[in-house]
Amino acid sequence: MTNTASHAHAPATHGPFQGHSDEKARQILDGARAVFLRDGFDGASMNDIAKAAGVSKGTLYVYFQSKDQLFAALIRHEKQQQAEQMCHWHDGDVTGDARSVLTTLGRQLAAKLTKPYNVAQVRTVMAVAPKFPEIGRAFWETGPHYGKQRLAAILDRLVANGELIVADTQTAASLFTQMCLGDVYRQLMLCVVDTVTDAEIEDMVAAAVDLFLAAYAPRP
């Protein structure tokens, strides 16, 4: 097993494919994803990842020089893919008045972020971030921060249309996301509960939208 704790530098976090074959790199990332989710960061080894990916250990090191570099690349790749799937809001796919837009966005956010895979990924990142802060930053930049920027852009549009009065849409986007997740997200993270139901998501989002509009909707 490769001992990443001995690395003096934060892991490299530039693009996961680093100029190599996209297909081979994705094959490695697929194997790494399975091993990290199964064994956690500390329990995963480059040998196990190579086996899961169906490549030699030598080939693995051609693409990624260390386990922490591989993990950082995986986090960036995963969050970029998830963000692209979830945050297509600026393309005009989410339309309607402020309440309907916020309800649609809130449901998407809560449903996606409370999925078991995403919860497991956040737990893994939190476990390694104190040792490798760059991994935490990679996760933040391509996940929560990216989503906040996209949501803030939607709020900007609603402000421009006169449907909301928001001085700081960045802060408002963060608040709205947190309200949509409610206590259930923390319960999931701490293994108090295993899943969240559609009904719970509906209730959390409805309450979040009501509170958000009470704060930011124009007064009659």
Which key phrases capture this entry?
single chain; 220 residues; mainly alpha; 70% helix; 0% strand; disordered N terminus
Describe the structure.
The structure is a single chain. Helix 1 (22-43) crosses helix 2 (46-53). This protein has helices at 22-43, 46-53, 57-63, 67-86, 98-113, 116-128, 133-142, 144-160, 169-189, 198-216. Helices cover 70% and strands 0% of the residues. With 220 residues, it is an all-alpha fold. The longest helix has 22 residues, at 22-43. It has ten helices and no strands.
Helices and strands in order:
Elements (H helix, E strand, L loop, with lengths): L21 H22 L2 H8 L3 H7 L3 H20 L11 H16 L2 H13 L4 H10 L1 H17 L8 H21 L8 H19 L4
Task: Extract low-pLDDT stretches.
Answer: 1-20
Q: How far is it from the N-terminal to the C-terminal residue, by CA?
A: 65 Å
Q: Give the helix tally.
A: 10
> Could you spell the SSE succession in H and E letters?
HHHHHHHHHH
Brief sketch in words of this structure:
With 220 residues, the chain is mainly α. The protein is 70% helix and 0% strand.
